[in-house]
Amino acid sequence: MTSPSGTPVPRQLPPVPAHFTSRTAELEALDSAAAGPEGDSVDQLPAVTVVVGPGGVGKTALAVTWAVRNARRFPSGQLYTDLRGFSPETAVPPEEALGAFLRALGVPPERVPVELAEQAALFRTTTAGMRLLLVADNAISAAQVRPLIPASSGCVVVVTSRLRLDGLHAEGARFVDMAPLPQEHAIELLTRSVGKSRVADELPDVKKLASLCGRFPIALRVAGARLASRPKWPVARMVAELRDERLRLTRLSPVGEASLTATFDSSYAALPPHAARLYRLASEHPGLTVEVGAAAAAARVSDDEAADGLQVLADASLLEEIGVGGYRFHDLVRLHARALPDDERFEVTPRIAEWYLHRMTRANMVVIPMRWRISTVCARYEGAPPLFGTGADALRWLDERLPDIIELLDETFALGQDELAWQLCEALWELFLYRKHYQLWIRTHEVGIAAAHRCADAVAEARLRCQLARAYLDLGRFEAAATECSKAAELARGAGSRHNESVALDQLGMAAQGRGDFERAVEYFGESLVIERELGIDRGVAQRHRRIGEALLQAGRTTDAARHLRLAQEMFNGVGDVKAEALVAVPLARINARAGEITAAKRELERAAAVLDRSGSTVYQSDVLVAFAEVAELEGDLAAARGHLTKALDLCRPIGGLRLDQARTRLAALDARSDRPQRPEPAAGEQP
């Protein structure tokens, strides 16, 4: 085609890919970039946009689709070149691409200069005043692209690359990041490929297939094509084929085209050695988000070196940057990295697990600073500045990393790294105590106890049995708790661990209290108190006075209960444990309220709430609300009592356990009381 002036009008864009799906935000970003800055200054540069993402994510499909949809906006024509920056073949030099562009624009072959600088000058002259669209696909560097940028402000250049090509920022480039498709759009692409009617009854398997494809368009298209060409195959068969991680990349490679493995291989081959090593080793990280410290531990390098290597991988679109100091592997990229040979690979899991143990310990030292721990890791950080600003911040980090920690616990146990495994388990105490993930609590401690037993560490086993027993106590499984604590006490006595024995006796008292045997509970607490006093642990002595006071209060011995609780409060104040002091304020408030001292009770609870609301524990917060409800009920304000119980129920519902049952029972009793007919007020002069 030629223009009215006789100049050729090139139409080089490839066809739009079949089943192109979604990418609305990315298309809008290209629209915005192509619009350029406001105004029509003659000095305005052509609009340059770099579409960045990993191989197979659909960068070319996006660029071509946008270009075809907007071709009419560029009457001077559309140019396309595949620069082959990441293909097994040699990358296209800029002079080769530029020569092809010049010929497409009508420059006779014999007039195309040999030198790149002369070609670029002629290209700028030829395209002056044109409205031209240029797509440079698969670029490897800014230097490869820069000569291809026209001079005319009416031109638009769309570049695709697995690298960020920061050097193009000087040309006014904008950057559009591409990630795998959202799950719903990945399902849509599969459905369109295979046929809606065929997969209508297999939606759960379609969802699984989309996930196994990593939501990469190239993999989704391959899976869809295999199913479309095999009409008798159920989707479940394809899902079964892809479950084996060792074969997944091969089976998701398009027939007769560069495989996914080759696509990732070419990106990997371009990495500098330190980043390539980090790519192989960091892929062993169990969770989605890799922190700089964990990557440093995996490769045994400094945090600064790890941060640099991770950024190189992110710039190469092999990692996705998540927040500050966090990076994420795309699923299929991780499989590729894990398949690469490396003699260090089997050493990586223990390295990462040890890093997590140290970080967990430092988090725990913020949550419960004075807690007794078996692991000696905490001794390394005594006197060190806290790693987290507040206990709530520390708990948030522990909660977010819990899936990673559990996988590391399982893997270290499977590798026979028993000492590391039981220490990881012990370090879960603060999180489970505050957040009550009961199923995970029990399962992880079964593993931890087995690890401690296997390495014949009776002290560690006793400690973990007590931690497990606490889960049973919270669930109201008092016999199971007593069984674990009895075993723990026996192990502790055999190992001469008086501290462990004291903890076991303390929890045997809690089990007896839960069964309603308050006298036996006080005996157990008293035995534990004697040991704590012998060991010189003032906080432990205070804790046992608190336990005795709470048991006596339940038994109706209010005067004796108040004496023990006030002594506990005084001792906690002496050791500077503000949180424990606030916990004692809750039963003391109940005593005040039952004595008719409502104002004093509310004051105690308000002071406790101010401390415990900052703890990050919904359990402690719900305990205060239940106490507020009891005080309101004694005051006769049933509406306020119901409000407090409803809030407590909302806090307890996600964690379950005995507290949830108790809150429901109290609320039901309150509702029943509210529904009873009220006795009429006596008339004036009558006796009530």
What's this, in brief?
By secondary structure, this protein is mainly α. Helix content is 61%, strand content 5%.
Verbal overview:
The chain has helices spanning 24-35, 59-69, 94-104, 116-127, 142-145, 183-194, 196-199, 203-212, 217-228, 235-242, 245-251, 260-269, 273-282, 292-299, 303-315, 331-339, 345-367, 391-414, 418-426, 429-435, 438-454, 458-474, 478-495, 498-514, 518-535, 538-554, 558-575, 578-594, 598-612, 618-635, 638-652, 658-675; strands at residues 47-52, 77-82, 132-137, 156-161, 174-177, 289-291, 320-322, 326-328. It has 688 residues and is mainly α. It has a five-stranded parallel sheet, sandwiched between helices. Strands 6-8-7 form a three-stranded antiparallel sheet. Helix 6 runs parallel beside helix 9 (217-228) and helix 11 crosses helix 16. The chain is elongated. This is NTPase. InterPro entries: P-loop_NTPase, TPR-like_helical_dom_sf, TPR_rpt. TPR repeats lie at residues 502-535. Keywords: TPR repeat.
